[in-house]
Design goal:
The complex is a heterodimer of chains A (341) and B (225). Chain A starts with 13 loop residues before the first helix and ends in an 11-residue tail after the last helix. Chain A is globular, with a radius of gyration of 21 Å. In chain A, the strands form 2 sheets. In chain A, strands 1-5-6-12-11-10-7-9-8 form a 9-stranded mixed β-sheet, with helices on both faces. In chain A, strands 2-4-3 form a 3-stranded antiparallel β-sheet. In chain A, β10 and β11 form a beta hairpin. The longest helix of chain A is centred in the N-terminal third of the chain and has 20 residues. Chain A has 11 helices and 12 strands. Chain A folds into 2 domains: 201 residues, BirA Bifunctional Protein, domain 2, CATH 3.30.930.10; 102 residues, no CATH class. Chain A is an alpha+beta fold and 341 residues long. Helices cover 37% and strands 30% of the residues of chain B. Chain B is elongated, with a radius of gyration of 20 Å. Chain B has 2 domains: 131 residues, Periplasmic binding protein-like II (D-Maltodextrin-Binding Protein, domain 2, 3-Layer(aba) Sandwich), CATH 3.40.190.10; 89 residues, Periplasmic binding protein-like II (D-Maltodextrin-Binding Protein, domain 2, 3-Layer(aba) Sandwich). Chain B starts with a helix and ends with a helix. Chain B has 225 residues and is an alpha/beta fold. In chain B, strands 2-3-1-4-11-5 form a 6-stranded mixed β-sheet. Classes of the chains: A alpha+beta (341), B alpha/beta (225). At the A-B interface, α7, β8 and α11 of A face β5, α10 and α11 of B.
């Protein structure tokens, strides 16, 4: 007789746990080297606090009442709890704040898809440092964390959450048309995007701009192409990305980063830079992040902020896969990865 | 290297892996591949193999409804499947890159010819009973049009359901309409139109951007012609 557990949750047995532990220690170690102190927050918070994130963000999936009738929720990420923590616990302290975490988060997802309701995130929050240097610091920490995991082939995609919105505003596209285009882009539906753009009353050059900009990805040369295509409408976002790229170059990590102007993360609180992490060994995105300069003001402490979260279990899968590929390439048995730190 | 060895090869290296749909979209897909100079004769033969070496591409064949699954997971970098499949599996995170134009068909609500049961059930019983292989598309359609329906998922010939009395009507994909006509069914509402689409894995779309963009441009040029 077996005793079921809810779909999208799982037990972890010693062999896997040992590897996860080693992986997470390496990550926390990398974070600490950059001066990020590890924190923990309660798994359950008042729903009202979690709801300050955004209705378009990763919504709170599990709510329940405590014995006093208070509405509680399980966090969907660590960004909101840490914003709350900084507002409460560092109310009088001088920014910037550098914090990191290794924590479980909870989301409503369809199981059997490699997605879980309960999963572990490892990440950092840098609060009180603005773009471009704050962003570049976060990317540098991210690159170091990926190295610590042995994922030296991993690539960090960087885009701008406002770029396409600014482009639409610059071309005077508003209302339902604007929403429709942004929805298609968020769904990665380039066919739908093209169909809608074709219906708009625009001259061919502008149409071309709307279709070409979200497909631009690669090295810093795509920024130049975006500037030429978008003109004044994308000047601000492209300028911002160029500055970030310069800051990355100054830190010697520009080669880990790929510019991607089609990136639109679905967490509503992002402003400015957005990040996504890929490894050639895995078809799924390993994690992401970006800037959320508005978020802290919702907790009464207006400060610029940036951060990222890596999906620990996916990192582990990518690590195992890289291990297998490395062993195959070398024509020998499995070897140890992750021992780089 | 054999086709199978190529299929299990390192993700992120070697030829791009394209998921090719068996069934109604197969001929159009192979014609498109021929048009851009990809070798398909082996696949056109009566081989039972699932994986084919086509030079610059590795072709993996599967049911159209499995294409989003393989592409989302990165087990294939690219795939060809119908818009109907993508609409039914909307939450699969794949990039929809190109409308390939072939395989045109319509998603429709159909009922028995001259039969009033659809309207009757809705008026008297509060909901229509609808059989379909596309339950989520059907549910979305009734929700979007403000009606209630009891959607019954079936796997085989949907046309049987209203004839045998399982349902009042069906939501199904129609190409010529002949199957409907032969079973004394008629189209009542058109829900959507569908054609074949090229989809890409999210990670491959980033990490192999130049190769994928070049392939898309060649397919776009061939699809327009």
């Amino acid at each position: 007789m077996t005793h079921p557990i809810p779909p999208g949750t799982r037990d972890i047995l010693p062999d896997e746990m040992r590897e996860l532990r080693r992986l997470s220690l390496g990550l926390i170690d990398a974070f600490e080297r950059f001066g990020y102190g590890e924190v923990a927050t309660p798994t359950i918070e008042y729903e009202e606090v979690l709801a300050r994130g955004d209705e378009r963000g990763a919504p709170v999936a599990y709510r329940f009442f405590d014995e006093a009738g208070e509405l509680l929720g399980l966090r969907s990420d660590m960004t909101i709890p840490i914003a709350r923590l900084i507002a409460n616990r560092y109310a009088a302290a001088e920014p910037p704040f550098r914090l990191c975490y290794l924590a479980r988060a909870y989301r409503a997802v369809r199981p059997q898809r490699g997605q879980m309701r309960e999963f572990t995130q490892a990440g950092v929050e840098l609060v009180g440092a603005s773009a471009p240097d704050g962003t570049a610091e976060v990317v540098e920490v991210l690159a170091a964390a990926l190295d610590a995991a042995g994922l030296t082939r991993a690539v960090i995609g960087i885009g701008d959450a406002d770029l396409y919105r600014q482009l639409l505003d610059g071309l005077g596209i508003a209302g339902e048309e604007r929403d429709g285009l942004l929805d298609s882009l968020a769904m990665h539906d380039h066919v739908g995007l093209e169909a809608q753009v074709t219906r708009l009353d625009l001259d061919p050059r502008r149409r071309e701009t709307l279709l070409a900009v979200p497909t631009l990805r690669g090295g810093p040369e795509v920024l130049e192409r975006a500037r030429r295509l978008g003109g004044p409408a994308t000047e601000r976002a492209v300028g911002r990305l160029s500055e970030t790229f310069e800051a990355l170059r100054a830190r010697g990590i520009a080669d880990r980063v790929s510019v991607d102007l089609g990136l639109l993360r679905d967490l509503g609180y992002y402003t400015g830079a957005i990040l996504e992490v890929y490894d050639p060994a895995l078809g799924h995105v390993l994690g992401g992040g970006g800037r959320y300069d508005e978020l802290m003001s919702r907790f009464g402490r207006p400060l610029p902020a940036a951060g990222f979260a890596l999906h620990l279990e996916r990192l582990h899968v990518a690590q195992a896969e890289e291990d297998r590929l490395g062993a195959e390439a070398a024509g020998r048995g499995p070897h140890t990865v992750g021992g780089r730190a | 290297m054999s086709g199978v060895a190529r299929a299990i090869r390192t993700a992120g290296e070697g030829p791009l892996k394209l998921a090719v749909p068996r069934g109604a979209l197969l001929a159009g897909t192979l014609d498109l591949l021929d048009a851009i100079g990809v070798e398909t004769s082996e696949l056109r033969g009566d081989s039972r193999a699932l994986v084919f070496d086509a030079g610059e591409l590795t072709l993996v064949t599967m049911r159209p409804s499995d294409v989003p699954t393989y592409v989302e997971a990165g087990a294939a970098d690219l795939g060809v499947t119908g818009k109907d499949v993508l609409a039914e599996q909307r939450d699969r995170a794949v990039y929809e890159l190109l409308d390939l134009g072939f395989g045109a068909c319509r998603m429709v609500l159909a009922g028995r010819r001259g039969d009033t049961r659809l309207g009757e059930s809705e008026r008297r019983l509060g909901a229509m009973r609808i059989a379909t292989k596309y339950p989520r598309t059907a549910e979305r359609w009734f929700e979007a049009t403000g009606r209630q329906a009891e959607v019954i998922e079936v796997k085989g010939s949907v046309e049987l359901a209203p004839l045998a009395g399982l349902a009042d009507g069906i939501v199904d994909l129609v190409e010529s309409g002949r199957t409907l006509a032969e079973n004394e069914l008629e189209v009542r509402e058109e829900i959507a139109t569908s054609t074949a689409r090229l989809v890409a894995n999210r990670v491959a779309h980033k990490l192999r951007a130049a190769e994928i963009d070049a392939l898309v441009e060649r397919m776009r040029a061939a699809a327009i012609r």
